[in-house]
UniProtKB/TrEMBL annotation:
InterPro entries: HARBI1-like, HARBI1_dom. Residues 2-51 form the DDE Tnp4 domain. Belongs to the HARBI1 family. It comes from the Eukaryota. Its cofactor is a divalent metal cation. This is DDE Tnp4 domain-containing protein. It comes from Sesamum radiatum (Black benniseed). The keyword Hydrolase applies. The keyword rRNA processing does not apply. One of its GO terms (molecular function) is nuclease activity.
Amino acid sequence: MFNHAHSRLRNVIERAFGILKKRFPILQWGMPSYLLNHQVDIVIACCTLHNFIRRFSNDDIIFNEPDGDLPQDMDSFYHRGHPTLSEIEEQRNLRDSIAMQMWASQNGT
């Protein structure tokens, strides 16, 4: 069960990186001539620009290609905004509960 969920999430993450690399080729081909702190700034700038385009562009060609589609539940998550404090606490509790169940299952208790 965990492996299946992990695999689905990994696919979403890999797809997201694929979209970023397609939109910003510098991310795909590398930046060895830049200082490390500049490389970090470039990645942050690319992500920021991507999010801006996603939010304000009705015709995002790269994202709307079949390979770039997010699963329906992830797309709604992407557009929902910041979580509330109670949602954060609820997710922490869920995470802790899952971790405890996995630990108990592994240790046979």
